[in-house]
Here is the input.
Amino acid sequence: MRRPDAYFATVARGLETLAAEELRSLGAGAVKLQFAGVAFEGDLELLYRVNLWSRLIYRVLVPLAVLEAESAQSLYQGVHTLDWSPYLQPDQTFAVVCSGKNAQLNHSHFTALQVKNAIVDQQRRQFGRRSSINTENPDLVVNAHIQDNQCQLSLDSSGFSLHRRGYRPALGQAPLKETLAAALLGLAEWRPHIPLYDPLCGSGSFLLEAGLQALHIAPGKFQRRFAFQSWPDYDPDLWRHLRQEAEAGELTQAPAPLWGSDENVETLEQAQSNAQAAGLGEQIYFFSESLNQIAPPTPEGYLICNPPYGKRLGNAEDLGDFYRQLGDIFKQRFKGWTAFVLSGNPELTKCIGLRPARRFPVFNGALPCTFLKYELY
Ligand SMILES: C[S@@+](CC[C@H](N)C(=O)[O-])C[C@H]1O[C@@H](n2cnc3c(N)ncnc32)[C@H](O)[C@@H]1O
Here is the structure.
């Protein structure tokens, strides 16, 4: 039997455990948690399946080699000694994405340049021609991760960050990454039969991710092309089969209602157009409402929101009253509900004035945040 291939999924730090669970549920074997990533094993079908179905991870990398990278020269030499012809022909384009650093390689742009030069110099010698760089839509994405004096070199099977689902033309103010919105729904243990309301919905990230889950829509279905589709071992029949299987399993009606409101009408229009683009136009009910006017649309459900917290929207000093009002509304109007708040400011969180039943530390980009759960009774 063919040995399973080794893969590495990159994920936001703090979400490794959730991502590992998701990968196992998709069929991954030998799952191992690492910092901001999860190593796993599987076949080509699993690689395609993870790209199509993962709601939490950024990219699936296929590790190629671990190289010495004490200096720019040693990295160049290491990359140059690998044979790139099985992966890249001179008429194909490529891009290099770098992360991590050490004392000598401390700028990702500089590191990427060493990798790129080593590859094109080899091509010039071998073919007399070289591949062009294309950062927008390359045929091959090479990923270089520097840690200590080593470089983990991988091919990126996704080619772009999977948090960009491809359905979202319109961004509101301070939108959450789709991967984070999906992860927070997971931490909340929201399930599609539970009514869901986001009263500060902005561009609708929570509701869009919830809608995709409720209708069993594969989050990768909106992507035009994944990087693995340019690889020599690309199996179009297998890919077509997985896509058809996904489409056949889609539902037409969410089991429970999804509501979103916001005071900003323009943002709501964006949320609505995102929902249309994702095929969820009929599933999510968006309406314009100011926070102080909101009311529970059903006796029970989950309320989830990401209020402004000063860093990206509004001014932290003015927001204390806003958070106090949020707590009062939870207490007075939402008895029987469970509320979840993503907050990036502990002082503002205290103004809610309720004791959280749980707190989950998470990162919103580089910003340390807390995701809080309140049982309202
Ligand atoms: C941080 S954003 C939410 C982003 C959203 N989770 C997303 O992913 O797009 C906060 C939202 O709260 C809304 N908002 C602020 N004050 C409000 C109020 N008093 N009533 C209703 N909405 C309000 C803003 O218009 C903004 O869309």
Remarks:
- The chain has ten helices and 14 strands.
- The chain has a mean pLDDT of 94.
